[in-house]
Amino acid sequence: MSQCSGITAAGGRCKGQAIRNSQYCFSHSPDHADARKQRASKGGKRGGRGRGSGEIAELKKQLEDLAKDVLAGNVERGNAVVVNQILNTRARLIELERKVKETDELEARLDALEQAQEQKEGRRWGA
Asked: What does the pLDDT look like over 36-61, one tens digit per residue?
């Protein structure tokens, strides 16, 4: 494979390998501009594996405070049960949201791989 003909933001020549049948790598190829734009838009939204840990820490703190208040007699047990159910529901929603985001990201990655394979072989996967 040949070296990419693209120019970096610093003004130097890109050191990436050119895509087959192209003079550019994925990062510089005009044919992949839409895919790059889509990936870039996810940059701040994607987060790392730890995303959501702030929400989980907040839920843990609320449960800890609730338990202390029940034991101290500041909150009635019936009210504590209802609050616990609400916090449980919130925890399940956080997990569901994480799974949906993960699925969306995996689908986008799979689409990109399929497009790359299609360009490489000139046909669609499974066709």
From this structure: 777 776 655 545 554 567 888 899 99
